[in-house]
Amino acid sequence: MTEHHTAVVIGAGQAGLSMSWHLTQRGVDHVVLERDTVAHEWIDGRWDNFTLVTPNWQCVLPGYAYDGDDPDGFMTRDLVYDFVRRYADSFDAPVREHVAVHSLRQRLGGGYHLETSAGAMTADQVVVAVGGYHLPSIPRLAERISPGVTQIHSSRYRSGAALPDGAVLVVGTGQSGAQIAEDLHLEGRQVHLVAGSAPRVARFYRGRDCVAWLQDMGVYDVSIADHAGGLAKRESTNHYVTGRDGGRDIDLRAFALAGMRLYGRLTDVDADGTLRFAPTLEQSLDAADAVADGIKNDIDAYIAAAGIDAPTEPRYTPVWRPDVEPTELDLAAAGITSVVWAVGFRRDYRWVKVGVFDGEGHPAHVRGVTGAEGLCFLGLPWQNTWGSGRFAAVARDAEYLAEHLASISSREPAGV
Fold this sequence. Notes:
It is built from 8 helices and 21 strands. By secondary structure, the protein is α/β, with parallel strands linked by helices.
């Protein structure tokens, strides 16, 4: 007979495990299917010197929280991995590792059919908790770069020591790109960095971590429905900052003063391998600084309104500006032997054979609840708030979905 469960959770990262905890508390028969191993992305998809950019005290999962001796610090890659693994063990989560889901379909009469690498399964309810970052994205123009240059996606970067000797080009200044550029710079590599449109935030301001101020201000609790632009907020890029060495700002201008080469948006690669850039560098730097300054304005206003006694400090003054915007780069002449593409990921829900997606491939949902009864998504960026998809609010999102699924199960059949 086909194996059946009341609920199947797909993915055993912090989102899927949070869902499993709530189902376990409610006594709901369920299984968590994981293509690889519990929390594997934390160890397999991060570089050696990776740290969280949110402080340890914000690492709170259902029935479980950070209890170490450095709540204001930032866990390293290996510590985060261990944190999530220990969470799974804490309630004996029913995880089946190395079971991939090949397809998910609705069944006639209700519920779902799953084809997996371990055979067919059926379920009354399914929670897809595989996050929103699936396939590494590398632009087609990368194909015109000389095959003698090593090219990797940021998800495969581990350290400068793992790359060939020589200068390194990093494309993208989101959280990963900016931190990888710093990592290479600290290892003594000559770094060339292509700046994008990502904003930045100060690590500390007026005596506290900015995350602590924003938490108290309720910023992480504002629903996407209450944000200007609504669902478009889901495409927002996170601010770059780092938790390395106790936490600090990432200032691309300071990198430039220290010898890093900065460029505007990459537009093309010539047949001879010369890279072309738009003159957008100064604009990108100014825009990132403006966001950081705007966050400080909001913190100032909160401090004043609440009558908080907090130290003052001078505002940031740009320490560098480009004299001339470079518009081309000859990789060979610059001694560049490696390129790290930090330009994001593409979604891949092709295995979900249920009509719950919009025209751009996003799951169409409200707080993770789709139009297909019993099918939910968890751990998506901006699923409901800025904290969604991170430790900050995944517990709250999981609880909401658990209550929703329980309400479906409790309904009496029509006519009873």
